[in-house]
Amino acid sequence: MQGRHFLHIPGPSPIPDRILRAIAMPIIDHRSAEFAALGKEVLDGSKAVFKTKQPVVIYPSSGTGAWEAAIVNTLSPGDTVLMAETGHFATLWKTIATRFGVEVELIPGDWRRGADPAAIEARLSEDKSRQIKAVMVVHNETSTGATSRVAEIRKAIDAAGHPALFMVDTISSLASVDYRHDEWQVDVTVSGSQKGLMLPPGLSFNAVSEKALAASKSNTLPRSFWDWQEMIKINAGGFFPYTPATNLLYGLKEALAMLREEGLDNVFSRHQRLASACRAAVKAWGLEVLCQNPAEHSPVLTAVLMPPSHDADRFRKIALEKYNISLGSGLGKVAGKVFRIGHLGECNELALLGALSGVEMGLAAAGVPHRSGGVAAAMAEFEGSESGNQAKA
Ligand code: PLP
Questions:
Q1: Predicted pLDDT at 391
Q2: Is residue 380 part of a domain?
Q3: Of 229, 260, 291, which closes a domain?
Q4: 329 lines ligand 1 (CB under 6 A)
Q5: Is the C-beta atom of 342 inside 6 A of ligand 1?
Q6: Which of 66, 219, 239, 261 pairs with 91 at a CA distance of 20 to 30 A?
Q7: Which of 68, 88, 171 gets mutated to test ligand 1 (max ligand atoms within 8 A of its CB)?
Q8: Do residue 238 and residue 274 come from a single domain?
Q9: Nearest-10 crossing angle of helices 349-365, 312-323
Q10: 256 in the same domain as 268
């Protein structure tokens, strides 16, 4: 197919040319002084993105590995943890914990909002014997487009006076949505390379608090590849305990430079701007955004409900074949019922408008009932935020 492919799934996100060029460099000796300088730079530089002064561990794996690492470094078989059913990814993280013999108490959810801080506080307050060892939350639920209020969940844990560890999955929010590992006293932040960091899949992260490190000295789940203690000891010299993903680390160095140049706050407000334009388009089409709580609308992706008896996957297939655009599929219990528009990473106004044109024409081509004018509504939203900015200046 001619022209550029519009990759608008909610990650992996498109890789900027600067990062592709940085990765396409000759590999170096991972035991050399040159590598140690790179290792130190990316291990240290990543801290700014997590907003932490504590160790950040980098694994050569997809995000699922970092999920597993958070569990096996802190918990023991038979431990109880509290999770919120925000969507497909919370459900997958729960499955991993269960496979390790951890008892997961799940606060049920309807997949249309984030984790409820009040429900977490209520459950922790009831837990007088302090059986719950960790609260585990997905910050940005990539399957639904709902972003949980992590700062409020921290307050809920504190209000209950509960000593549980706090673990947060930021795989689809890091470097796109405001996030503060230290300020919000998160004990383990889990992340991945292929979304806000604009890298290929293949790196994953754990930012680790002192409390989590202390837990890792006495918990009993076995681990080897994922072990923090070994990793952090060897990272001190800029090295890794096994062969690192050297070329992805070149890419990470470049991604961190790009985020520094734009400024994290500007990155976050760009994502907010793109997301509200996308929601304006959905509204103009007469379709419904899956996330029902405006305070939790995701800056990273928008999940759109199909009208009843219209199959989202058929629509996505037609849009791909006719207009060369990839949209995200519905996952788990919303499969076929929603499609997801990714607007994260390198995305800007025109890239989003192109994608929205593809959606609008795709809806028409697939015979999905809708009103036209979504792209115009998104443009008006951009113009409105521009004139708002000028008025403020
Ligand atoms: N958590 C969230 C929120 C995700 O979006 C994803 C992947 O999309 C994962 C976890 C799993 O990460 P990976 O597919 O990189 O293993």
A1: 60
A2: yes
A3: 260
A4: no
A5: no
A6: 219
A7: 171
A8: no
A9: 110
A10: no
Whether the CB of 11 sits within 6 Å of ligand 1? yes
Q: Calculate ∠ Cα 103-104-107, nearest 5°.
A: 150
Whether 393 has a pLDDT exceeding 60, the answer reads: no
Q: What is the mean pLDDT of the chain?
A: 97
How many domains are contained in the chain?
A: 2
The SS3 call for residue 207 is strand
pLDDT at residue 10, rounded to an integer:
98
172 lines ligand 1 (CB under 6 A): yes
What are 254-259's contacts with CB under 8 Å, separation 24+?
A: 254/18, 254/19, 254/22, 255/19, 255/175, 255/197, 255/198, 255/199, 256/42, 256/45, 256/46, 256/48, 256/49, 258/16, 258/18, 258/19, 258/198, 259/48, 259/49, 259/175
Structure confidence by residue, pLDDT tens digits, 224-256? 999 999 999 999 999 999 999 999 999 999 999
Query: Which residue, of 221, 241, 260, is where some domain finishes?
Result: 260
- CATH code at position 255: 3.40.640.10
* CATH number reported for the structural domain that contains residue 387 in this entry: 3.90.1150.10
Same domain, 335 and 315: yes
Print the domain residue range for 315.
6-12+263-392
Report yes or no on 1 lying in a domain: no
Residue 64 near ligand 1, beta carbon < 6 Å: yes
On whether the pTM is more than 0.90, the answer is yes
CA–CA dist 380, 374 (Å, integer)? 10
CA distance 261 to 87: 34
Distance (angstroms) between ligand 1 centre and the Cα of 19 equals 21
pLDDT tens, residue by residue, 324-351: 999 999 999 999 999 999 999 999 999 9
**What's the pLDDT at 389?**
64
Q: Is residue 291 part of a domain?
A: yes
Query: Domain check: are 373 and 277 in the same one?
Result: yes
Point out the ligand 1 atom lying closest to the alpha carbon of residue 139: 3
Q: pLDDT at residue 66 above 90?
A: yes
pLDDT at 218: 97
Residues 111 and 246 in one domain: yes
